[in-house]
Known about the structure:
mainly alpha
Amino acid sequence: MKLYCHIFLYFLIFTLLYYNYLFSKWSPMGIVLSVLVAVFVTGCGTDGESDKNKADDELASGKALFIRNGCAVCHGNAGRGDGPVASSLKPPPRDFRDRSSYKKGRGVEAISETIKLGVPKSAMPAYPHIAPADRRLVALFIESLQSKNSLDDSEE
């Protein structure tokens, strides 16, 4: 919560307690202040911090799965298509930064489906044994690579 939320909340609670002390019962003003406190507390959220933390955790999990399932052997740890065996593969592994290389779509669902089914006439095998939730995490990681560092958006 932000500092001004805390200050205002403490002020409302103090005022509520003061009115209850003065009147020794719940006055209309005490009820109104109680409602204001409840509304204010629900309005002073985390400003998306927990959502950002969840997204960061998902990307970290996706990267770990990317490496654990052997994706980095061909695509490299950063998804640039420069893994240890990349030079021996024809066609070469996809550089995930290059948005134009996504033939079946570059969204999370399309990437997840490509992981599941593989790419015909390439070295990219199918991974149907990876759980759908794990495929989604890997796809989120891959999507984050291409949305941050797209080759068609910047010159490298």
